[in-house]
From TrEMBL, chain A:
Composition skew (Basic and acidic residues), residue ranges: 256-274
Source species, domain of life: Eukaryota
CDD domains, A to Z: bHLH_AtBPE_like
Residue numbers spanned by region Disordered: 207-296
Cell compartment(s), UniProt: Nucleus
Residue span(s) of domain BHLH: 306-356
Main location: nucleus
Taxonomic lineage: Eukaryota, Viridiplantae, Streptophyta, Embryophyta, Tracheophyta
Keyword terms: Nucleus, Transcription, Transcription regulation
The name this protein goes by in its record: BHLH domain-containing protein
Pfam family, one: HLH
The keyword Nucleus is assigned to this record: yes
TrEMBL record, chain B:
Record keywords: Nucleus, Transcription, Transcription regulation
Entry protein name: IBH1-like N-terminal domain-containing protein
Pfam families hit by this protein: IBH1_N (PF26576)
PANTHER family assigned: TRANSCRIPTION FACTOR IBH1, TRANSCRIPTION FACTOR IBH1-LIKE 1
Domain (IBH1-like N-terminal): residue spans on this chain: 18-78
Major subcellular site: nucleus
Species name: Brassica cretica (Mustard)
Subcellular location: Nucleus
TM segment ranges: none
Length: 493, 156
């Protein structure tokens, strides 16, 4: 965007620009600057969004103002042909350059894509209008006063005006030595005039620094000098002219120019940095600019009154994540709903986990005590069954059926078991009625599949332990043991 | 920056899967000769407990869950076996960030929780919460299964 701006003002072939700036009378040059100003102002807000995270509404507002102003300008009659063609040529070149520049502004390109064209056409119209009648003057002053009336802008402009040249000096350190001489040159000028000259210097340097592609004329170190000279003359005229027609707009001109320049500088630096880490840049744009957010990132927006820097945004995302999971845990842990506060909730969760772990320990103790009394002698049967189970994987029903077939094999009750297979699920609640001998009953106990296993626990409590048929309620989990036990007993018998 | 969030998945397999795994590991235990010697009750308790945890880890998470991975790894270490799990995408090993802004009490609690949940040392707080949720589900399942077993095998 800023590159394009530079193109607008400086980069196009010097002859054209020179003609453009020198040919009109001083007042028209003035007008020219003034008319370009809206353009500048219009361009600068996006950078502001980068830099200052300025709200887009202001930009919108300005845009609308300038739009109205410009439209009136365009509609105003009699653009001179030569100028217009020059402007058109400018536009063309600019467009071409913009196309080449597209790669540089990766982050901003898509967002600013639309404004670019409009801008070009507008700049053309600006070039065209200087020869036109006074009415534009009226229109022109309106946005400018409006602009200077904006307190935030005035503040910023004041800041920039004081360190504009210094920051430029700072930049030359990183940049090309050629510029030093020119800075001295520009230092002679008044502040008002110096800024355009600075800009003239800045643009080629900036261009060469940021990208290899430069118009052939500009790459030689002399040409910028030409620029500055020509610009100086223009700006001198302008500075002479400035106090006369409009005293109030003139500071704002310089300020806008300076501001734009500085912001451009920063934008340029930023962009160069951003080429390294586009992520951050993207995020930055994300935070402030709703249109076209990259899809890879979560779109985080700060609500009113919330901090907007990346750290607090990240922290907020993190907290939200934790809160979400906390809710999940809250549902899992009994008694956690009554507790408020994260720390207390965590405490509750910890207690619950601990109690569960203790329970596991306790139960394993119990199991170990159970083991030696009753289960020791049927290890083999269990193992074989478990092998079956494991081979069948974790498919429950399957394993249940396997068990069934196994028991079926054991007891040789073919017909009975077949009926059992069919009435598998219905058997649960009234199994005893259909069963006569205990062996058969045991065969039946394998029918409730493991899915029903836990459902029947409560049922199991109802039955007396002594009752053989109570096995039915216990399900498969310990059935292998019992079954094998009975099997063993059978064998022993 | 937070990457695209996966939905929190704390689904746990059915109880019977836990039961099957537990029975299997129990039977494996019983096959061992040392297990049946009557004098080492403590040893047996430990073994059963370990079997319970390992079978739970196998049943629920396998190597997909951080806590189950940690459990299995620990168990394997105790058996002097070297296991290699398939690698997870990217694991940040040291996530214990200290920050002044965070609630110290909360952090302390989270730290306690980290010590309870296997493999919790390397988790960030949000991950820890997720794993804890899954772990709690699995543990309660395991407890139920074991309770059933104990009830079923209770001496008459």
């Amino acid at each position: 965007m800023d590159n394009e701006l530079f193109m607008n003002t400086e980069l196009p072939p010097p002859s054209e620009m020179a003609m453009h700036f020198e040919q009109p009378s001083s007042s028209s040059a003035m007008l020219n600057w003034a008319l370009m100003d809206p353009n500048l102002a219009r361009n600068s807000p996006p950078q502001d969004c980068f830099m200052w995270e300025k709200s887009t509404e202001q930009q919108q507002q300005q845009q609308s103002i300038f739009d109205s102003a410009l439209s009136s300008l365009v509609s105003s009659p009699t653009p001179s042909n030569s100028n217009f063609s020059g402007g058109g040529g400018d536009g063309f070149i600019i467009r071409e350059l913009i196309g080449k520049l597209g790669n540089i502004g990766n982050t901003s390109g898509d967002i600013y894509g639309a404004p670019m064209n409009g801008n070009v056409s507008r700049s053309a119209s600006c070039y065209a209008t200087p020869m036109s009648s006074p009415p534009p003057m009226m229109n022109r002053t309106a946005p400018l006063t409006e602009f200077s009336g904006d307190p935030g802008f005035a503040e910023r402009a004041a800041k920039f005006s004081c360190f504009g040249s210094r920051s430029f000096n700072g930049r030359t350190n990183s940049g090309i030595p050629v510029n030093n001489g020119k800075i001295v040159n520009s230092g002679k000028l008044t502040r008002v005039s110096s800024t355009p000259a600075l800009k003239a210097l800045a643009s080629p340097e900036f261009a060469s620094a940021s990208r290899p592609m430069i118009p052939a004329g500009d790459s030689t170190p002399k040409l910028p000098g030409e620029f500055s000279r020509k610009r100086k003359s223009v700006s001198k005229g302008k500075s002479k002219e400035n106090p006369l027609p409009a005293a109030s707009p003139s500071p704002s001109f310089s300020k806008t120019a300076e501001r734009k320049e500085v912001s451009e500088e920063k934008g340029g630096k930023r962009r160069r940095e951003d080429e390294g880490d586009e992520e951050e840049g993207n995020k930055g744009t994300n935070d402030t600019k709703p249109p076209e957010p990259p899809k890879d990132y979560i779109h985080v927006r700060a609500r009113r009154g919330q901090a907007t820097d990346s750290h607090s945004l990240a922290e907020r995302v993190r907290r939200e994540k934790i809160g979400e999971r906390m809710k999940l845990l809250q549902d899992l842990v009994p008694g956690c709903n009554k507790v408020t506060g994260k720390a207390l909730m965590l405490d509750e969760i910890i207690n619950y986990v601990q109690s569960l772990q203790r329970q596991v320990e306790f139960l394993s103790m119990k199991l170990s005590s159970v083991n030696d009394t009753r289960l020791e002698f049927n290890v083999d049967a269990l193992v074989s069954k478990d092998a079956m189970i494991s081979s069948s994987g974790s498919r429950v029903h399957e394993s249940g059926l396997r068990l069934e077939s196994l028991s079926h094999h054991n007891y040789n009750n073919n017909s009975q078991l077949h009926t059992n297979v069919s009435s598998n699920n219905m058997m649960l609640h009234s199994p005893m009625k259909s069963l006569e001998p205990s062996a058969l009953a045991r065969g039946f106990t394998h029918l409730p599949t493991l899915t029903q296993f836990t459902d029947t626990i409560s049922q199991y409590q109802m039955f007396s332990e002594e009752d053989l048929q109570s096995i039915v309620g216990m399900g498969v989990a310990h059935n292998p043991n019992h079954e094998s036990q009975s099997q063993n007993m059978k064998i022993e018998l | 920056m937070a990457s695209a969030d996966k939905p929190i998945n704390t689904d746990v397999p059915e109880k019977d899967v836990f039961a099957l795994h537990f029975l299997q590991s129990l039977s494996n235990l019983r096959r061992q000769n040392t297990f049946n010697s009557p004098e080492k009750t403590n040893d047996r308790v430990k073994k059963i407990k370990k079997a319970a945890y390992v079978s739970m880890a196998r049943a629920a998470g396998g190597t997909n869950r951080l806590w189950s991975r940690a459990l299995l790894r620990r168990a394997a270490k105790e058996n002097n076996k070297i296991v290699r799990f398939p690698r997870r995408k990217k694991r940040v090993t040291c996530l214990r960030r200290r920050s002044n802004r965070r609630d110290p009490v909360e952090e302390e609690e989270a730290e306690r929780l980290r010590n309870l949940v296997p493999g919790g040392g390397g988790m960030g707080t949000s991950k820890l919460m997720e794993e804890t949720a899954h772990y709690i589900k699995c543990l309660s399942m395991q407890v139920k299964v074991m309770q059933c077993l104990v009830d079923g095998l209770a001496p008459k």
